[in-house]
Amino acid sequence: MRHLMSPLDLSVEELDKLLDLAGDIEKNPEKYAHKCDGKILATCFYEPSTRTRLSFESAMMHLGGKVLGFATADSSSAAKGESVSDTIRMISCYADICAMRHPKEGAPMVASTKARIPVINAGDGGHQHPTQTLTDLLTIRSLKGRLDHLTIGLCGDLKFGRTVHSLINALIRYPGISFIFISPEELRIPDYIREDVLDANGIPYKEVIRLEEVMPRLDLLYMTRVQRERFFNEEDYVRLKDFYILNKEKMAYAREDMLILHPLPRVNEISVEVDDDPRAVYFEQVQYGVYVRMALILTLLGLAGQEEK
Ligand code: NCD
Fold first, then answer.
1. For ligand 1, is residue 264 a contact (CB within 6 Å)?
2. Does residue 3 carry a catalytic annotation?
3. pLDDT tens-digit map of 223-268
4. pTM, whole model, 2 decimals?
C-alpha cells in the first residue's frame, strides 16, 4: 500500500507516468468516468480549504466514486480530543482512500502509519503540500512543454509557504533548473531548504527583495500569499501582507512567454487587472488540479494502467 506524503515519494519515472495519465484524463474523461465505481474517498480536513478539498471530491466524483469527510477540526471528534491515529483507524473502515490536511507538520505521516488505506497529505502545517505540487508540475508541463531548463521565480511568503517547499523539492530533480527567490528578509526560504535541498544538490539560486529587477529573466513566476495563520503576531502580518502586489506595470518587465502561477487563494498579491493577461494561468492551474488528483487516486488505488485491459 502506498501513501503520498511528499512529492519525492514518487520517482521521476512514476511522476512522468502520473502526469501522462492526467493528460489522458484531460483528453478522454469518459474513459475514466466509472473507474472508481463503488470506491469511497474520505477528506479529513483539520484546517480550512476550498480548492484542495473540493478538488479531491470533484476528482473522486468524476471517477464515479463517492466521498465523505469533514471540513473543520471542530466538526470532527478532534474537538473531543481524539488523536489522528485513532481517527484514521476508524476512517479505514469507512473509506478506500483518505486525503488529510492538518495544521501540525507530520500529522498525515503519523496517520499513514496506522492506516489500512492509502493516505494523501493534503497540506501539513508549513511543511509540504504534494498534491499542489503535482498540480503545478502538470500545469507547467502542459503549458510550457517541459519541466527542465527553467528559471523559476518564487515570490512572497517563502518561509511558511508549504506549496513553495514541495515545489522546490520536486523541481530540483530535473536538469537545468534555477531559482530566484523573491521575498522580504523575514520571509526568506527556511535554512533547511537552502542547505539540505539546494546547496546539497548544487542547485543554482539567488535571493532578492525586489521583484522588478529579476522579472525579465523568469520563465515562470510563482506568486504566493503571506500565510497569516502561521504568524506569531498580527502586526508582522499587517506589515508584510502587501509587500508584493503584481500589477500591469510590473508585468511590463516580464517576458512574453512568462507564466504566472499561484496556488490560490489570492489575497492582494496579484491585482485583478492581471487576470486577463494571457500569461496569468492560475485559474487554469485549478483545472489541472482535478485531473492530477484523478490520476493520483487511480494510481494509489492500483487502478491506473488498466484501461487497455
Ligand atoms: C495553499 C495551501 O493550502 O497551502 N492553498 C492550496 O491548497 N491551493 C496555498 C495557500 O493557502 O496560500
1. yes
2. no
3. 999 999 999 899 999 999 999 999 999 999 999 999 999 999 999 9
4. 0.96
